[in-house]
Amino acid sequence: MAQAGLLVLDNALDHDYYRPVDHWTAAAGFEPEAIHVAAGQPLPSVDAYPHVILTGSEASITQRAGWAEEEARWLAEAIRAGTAVLGSCWGHQLIALALAGPGAVRRSDSPEFGWLEVQVADTGGLLPAAGFATFVSHFDEVAPDCHPDCRCLASTPGCQVQAMRWADKPVWGIQAHPEVDPDTGRGFLKGASNKWPEHKALFEAGLAGPVVDTGAGVDLVSRFLATGRR
Questions:
Q1: Is 179 a catalytic residue?
Q2: Burial level of 53, CB count in 10 A (0-12/13-18/19+)?
Q3: In terms of pTM, does the model score above 0.90?
Q4: Which is catalytic among the residues 51, 92, 138, 177?
């Protein structure tokens, strides 16, 4: 195993709109190594990094390009090798896809945009017991009861699997974006109205709602890096 720490797998399609490595760098407090998977950069050996963060993406998990299928195969092998994994939004969904198959992810009947209170039922060794408030932005979701090893940790009214842990492995997914600060979230929603005008009403509703953010990202990353293999 290489003596490396944290790898961020960057799944963004357009860095003029979405630069997730910058957000995770701010949450971690240091600059991690990063691979832009969506741009075709090659994935490393599955045991090269003890901790991997999977970012969100403008892509849909239900309509996967070849790079996403390759990343899912890599991810399943990395988890078998003992890698600690944290996925956010699309990355959260990719974990379920990689470990439970295509039926584990689906289009949401209640897409969420803006800022929400996340209710925590089980910390899973990662989440704050009191819950947290953060930015959310998703059309797709992980299906509840998609696999016996998928432990639902938290929910919102529109999303039953707002966070999960895979059995007792150091593998967590969070549908929300705790790494995104309010100013960045506002920028996302304003930009989304131009990129996807057919959904403009959803984005504008998110912008019109209250901003509630408890800044959970820093503590989440700290706890994540304290788990798993070294």
A1: yes
A2: buried
A3: yes
A4: 177
Residues 24, 194: Cα–Cα separation, whole Å: 25
Q: What is the DSSP letter of 41?
A: P
Catalytic residue among 51, 71, 89, 146: 89
Class of domain 6-108+140-179+216-225: alpha beta
**Helix/strand/coil (H, E, C) string of 60-116?**
CCCCCCHHHHHHHHHHHHHHHCCCEEEEECHHHHHHHHHHHCHHHEEEEEEEEEEEE
Q: Which helix (H) or strand (E) holds 182?
A: helix 182-195
Please identify which of the residues 71, 112, 141, 179 carries the catalytic annotation: 179
The set of residues, in sequence order, having a beta carbon less than 8 Å from that of 220 and lying 6+ positions away, is 27, 86, 126, 127, 174, 178
Q: Is the per-residue pLDDT at 1 higher than 50?
A: no
Q: What is the pLDDT of residues 157-206, one digit of tens each?
A: 999 999 999 999 999 999 999 999 999 999 999 999 999 999 999 999 99
Active site residue 89: yes
- Residue-range domain boundaries for the chain: 6-108+140-179+216-225
